[in-house]
Amino acid sequence: MASEVTEETGEDEAAQEPKVLEVPPAISVGDLSALMGAAPVDVIKQLMRRGYMFAINDVLDEELSTAIARSFGFESTAPPEQEATPGSMVIASDEEDPSKLQPRSPVVTILGHVDHGKTTLLDSVRNSNVVSREAGGITQHIGAYQVSREGSRITFLDTPGHEAFTAMRARGTQVTDIAVLVVAADDGIMPQTEEAIDHVQAAGVPMVVAINKIDRPQADVERVKRQLAEHDLLIEEWGGDVVAVQVSALTGEGVPDLLENIHVVAEVGDLKANPDQAARGVVVEARIDKSKGPVATVLVQTGTLHVGDHVVADEVRGKVRALINDAGERTSHAGPSEPVEVMGLSGLVTAGDRFTVAADEKAARLMVEEAEKRREGGERFGRTLEDLQARIGSGEVKALNLVVKTDVQGSVEAVRQALEALSTEKTKVVLTRCASGGITESDVLLASASDAIIIGFNSNLEPGARALAAQGGVDVRMYDVIYNLIDEIDGALKGLLEPETRDVVEGYATVRALFGLGRSLKVAGIFVSDGRISRGDQIHVIREGSKVFEGQISSLKHFKDDVREVTSGLEGGVVLDGFQDFREGDTLEAHRTVLAQ
């Protein structure tokens, strides 16, 4: 029986010789009460005195449970298997040590048209019925599952469709290793199938086609194969490189072959990760649980996540109180390609957020502060036609990605041919998607994930898509005359060709004096010995023959007047953006970039 606790201090008066109690890193209020032999109401009172409002089923972290145990006269220690948490003492590095890489399970997403059997196929793969387990079970929340086959595992992401698949990519997160495209043998390729194909191809993810419902009388497998070929998906038996498997999700026929082919594709990909470092991964789903608080389903991509680790996801941090696997069981850790539910976060995270394990609470706090600064700074990438040039990556081939929607099917081919004709050896038009119909949210997500511009030709922009485009900074261009469309895209392509430029020195000046302006700003008093110093020049500060700074002029004066330039033989004052360490005798070189003749 636990000794009495005083109301004033909440400390055990009889704790002269504390008893040792092994407390795991995460334990519920009820379990801790039973472990100590105390009434749950007394434990809850102690929590309330410390400012915590917990119920009997709520989970406590190690620090809090230790403090409560101490107030009841126990000296708390961690169980032996929980003492060491490798990977929690360092921040994960972006670079993997090749010598420490080990094979990991492939992460698979199932995509396809509605009612083509995606959920039924996933049920068949898992040898269970998702629907019957959803009521009150963990499966209705955790959107990822692992299946075992002949000693190997495959992780399936149970996403609602290609929109969620692409939404993660739009946030800069590539989660899927292999995409399974489900096509019903009786329906063939449908509009949503085409969208799924576009999204997978834009992601550059290997694809396995599951031709489903082969048990139906109306099934026409050969027609599906022809339709795949029409969408540039040539299956292996026709001389292509796309793996196609005939399955019946209802009867289970062909499902072992599908899993076998997924393993083959995974082996070709040589998927590896280092399980011995701090965990990094991505948030798959997130929710608020009435009793547990914020709960996130995460997929570990590298390293191993442990109970007790300090986790950071964007502007949310926390100490992992508990991990629950896809079977609803508590686990002490999760390695690469493993999905788990995480409890202990301070707030609600967003699907697609990356998470990282920090060295300690202080490091986690600093990481959150950096994320907050980035958000306050309004960081975001432009995707307008005007600023596309700055977004183009280096390389000889320049690409302009477009998502094109036209009013009718007859316009699709005309617009496609006109745009493709604009491609040259140095610039290329990439049609990420070209189809008829209105511009939808799916189109915006695809454009966002592919850094593409949306082109609408006599097409309407749906309200939801308009709002999503504005939120994500996706440029949507609407045209009703094809010549205007072609002229503008042609102009953008020509803008991608970087003009030949050369650097010229416009003038030289010597720093002769230093002046203070305000508390910290320094003005260099200069004498222009040759040429001129202009406001738009790039200034090189040369000291003893070495360049110590390069930057822009923020202020240029002649006596007290702001001027655009100071010419040879005149004196002036210069303030440089980001540089204060002037010294008398420094030389200022004024550089300007001009077009080569």
Can you tell me about this structure?
- The chain is of the alpha+beta class and 597 residues long.
- 26% of the residues lie in helices and 34% in strands.
- It is built from 15 helices and 33 strands.
- Helix 8 (221-230) links the parallel strand 10 (207-212) and strand 11.
Instruction: Report the sheet-strand fraction.
Output: 25-35%
Number of helices: 15
Largest sheet: 6 strands, mixed
Number of strands: 33
Supply Rg: 31 Å
As a percent range, the share of helical residues equals 25-40%
What number is the mean pLDDT? 78
Shape: flat
The N- to C-terminal Cα distance equals: 93 Å
Q: Strand order of the main beta sheet, please? A: 7-8-6-9-10-11
Q: Specify the structural class.
A: alpha+beta
Q: Flag low-confidence runs.
A: 1-16, 80-95, 128-141, 377-382, 389-397
Question: What's the short story on this structure?
Answer:
The protein is an alpha+beta fold and 597 residues long. The chain contains 15 helices and 33 strands. It has a six-stranded mixed β-sheet with strand order 7-8-6-9-10-11.
Helix and strand arrangement:
Blueprint: E1 19-22, E2 26-28, H1 29-36, H2 40-49, E3 59-61, H3 62-71, E4 74-77, E5 102-103, E6 107-112, H4 118-126, H5 130-134, E7 144-149, E8 152-157, H6 162-170, E9 178-184, H7 191-203, E10 207-212, H8 221-230, E11 243-246, H9 255-269, E12 272-273, E13 280-289, E14 293-302, E15 305-306, E16 310-313, E17 316-324, E18 330-331, E19 333-334, E20 339-345, E21 354-358, H10 361-376, H11 388-391, E22 398-406, H12 409-420, E23 427-436, H13 441-450, E24 453-457, H14 463-472, E25 476-479, H15 482-496, E26 501-517, E27 521-534, E28 538-543, E29 546-558, E30 561-562, E31 565-567, E32 571-576, E33 587-595
Parallel strand pairs: 1-4, 6-8, 6-9, 9-10, 10-11, 22-23, 22-24, 24-25
Antiparallel strand pairs: 2-3, 5-12, 7-8, 13-14, 13-21, 14-20, 15-19, 16-17, 16-21, 17-18, 17-20, 26-27, 26-33, 27-31, 27-32, 28-29, 28-33, 29-30, 29-32
